[in-house]
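Late entry, evening session. Most of the bench is empty. Finally got around to the prediction I had been postponing all week. Sequence below, unchanged from the version circulated by S.P.
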Amino acid sequence: MSSPESPRGPSVWNSVHGIAYGGDYNPEQWPEDIRLEDIDLMKEAGVNFLSVAIFSWGLLEPSEGNYDFGWLDDVLDNLHGAGIKVALATATASPPAWLARKYPEILPVTAEGVRLDRGSRRHYSPSSSVYRRYATTMTRVIAERYKDHPALALWHVDNELGCHVGEFHGEEDAAAFRRWLERRYGTIEALNDAWGTAFWSQHYASFDEIIPPGAAPTTLNPGQQLDFARFNSWSFMDYYRELLAVLREVTPGVPATTNFMVSSATKTLDYFDWSKDMDVIANDHYLVAADPEREIELAFSADLTRGVAGGEPWILMEHSTSAVNWQPYNQPKMPGEMLRNSLAHVARGADAVMFFQWRQSKAGSEKFHSAMVPHGGRDTHVWRNVVDLGEALRKLEPVKGSRVESRVAIVFDYEAWWAAELDSHPSQGVKYLDTMRAFHRSLYLRGVTADFVHPTVDLAGYDLILVCTLYAVTDEAAASIAAAAHDGATVLVSYFSGIVDERDHVRLGGYPGAFRELLGIRTEEFHPLFPGTSTTLSDGSVGSVWSEHVRAADSTEVVATFTHYPLDGVPALTRRATGAGSAWYLATLPDADGIDALTARLLDEAKVTSAAEAGAGVELSRRRAADGRSFLFAINHGREDVTVKSDGEELLSGARFSGVVAAGAVAVIAEDPPN
């Protein structure tokens, strides 16, 4: 299905006053007296925005064609009376039991042929024509009923698409995959060429012979796997577009979105591809409690979300007030951590802070997942934190609509992620995000914010561009990266980049094919390192995961070499001047000290500095409004006070900034204009 035209005029930000604050509201779990109490508590907390009816299909349509909207009418009326705006869901995230029982063909089928049954959630295939028919009907019924409701500010289409089940292998999925391939390639000859089916006698005479990649004797065709990943992302998007088309028809002036799951652990959907169909980007993010640097992963995910949003403000649709329930060990958040987490998202571009969920469930799979109103009620530190956060966000109203500043770009491509981690590669130890996260961490610790950008975007305006494990790249994207270096940027390319084209065909003539000329190097063979082993470079840094036999051209400076046999003296880090800029190549994964030293050198060459002078342990990010006003966020995740050099009003206290951010605290400085 083609994409319905996005309004891009009506905006959710015009409907909600200040920074949006709230969460998933599931009133269907509670009796009327609790629902009325909720309104008073929402006013106390400063809630102004809620997602409603996400998992309510079973109650809205308890049997086929029989609807009960009375309770939802009352809920929306009460919320409107309290001045609270709503992201109203299509209620299609979890099909009711009667639908799955009547049409078991809607249920997902795994690669092993196992049908996943009801009793959980997300138990449908996006390619199911039956499910689409019922989902669009439910969407239309809800849209028609509430199209003029004054609380309606945004449509929340389905929920966390791609969560739990990201691949589908049923008969209808296979047929949809074949149709998608035929549209993509046009002829079976073109597909055979793209997939390299001359190898292993995999030639196809017609599209009818193709099945999704599933259980097989050994490794599968990589081109087929890559296209199946593309198809699964597209099939969800096509399903989304079908519901969106109904909403556009019935409520053309109401913006719509769905909640992504952008993080360092989620790669099912190509969110850059999806972004063009969103009127505003919304994201769910949850910390991994066992990660000692979880605030850095949060920053990575928030920066990536902002990248998907094209730099525009976005919605943090879900995070947690404290513990979740689905990790092996679910510790609560530490003192002040919920405030720091929430404002870190705002610092990196969010103009809405929302949680799962408003009131903690007393039954069901997520009853031990924290919420804004915990099991213990008002007399709890969680509730006090919720009220305090609402007050803090109210004070940050001037920040709304401003944009995050960055002169550093990290190139990110979901298709390259999929392709880089296919099987039959030189090393299973190469992970797409490893080098990227290492550099992002180093930038974070130096108070430098990075934008994540798709390879197709205009790179003008960035002084430092990091190209990490971009295994698959198009000719056009490679040319754009080379042009940025020629025009004055400092560009670093890491190992296992530029190896194949978008079809997963190796670029012949020596590695890294797409970037050989830019970098002035040529690699004949890879020398991946075994787990637990490392190599020392001539500059003293230690590398792991990867090494390779690099040959540098005369015009290329060898900055550091390998020292291990048989690569002793072989270039490990190179630099080549090109036009007004430079192109660096990194042939291993340095340890933290090595990454930090290289980051410092790259930043110095690119003349990029920290957002502010500050002591160690403080997270820094700056947002700037269209009128030039700037807001420095200084988040102290440590247990000692930290000095930060900045002058202006500290918005959370309303006083002049003292130059010190207390242990575990946050300062947001409306900076004085420069003299």
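Two things to note before I forget:
The two ends are 55 Å apart (CA to CA).
The longest strand covers residues 571-578.
Will write this up properly tomorrow.
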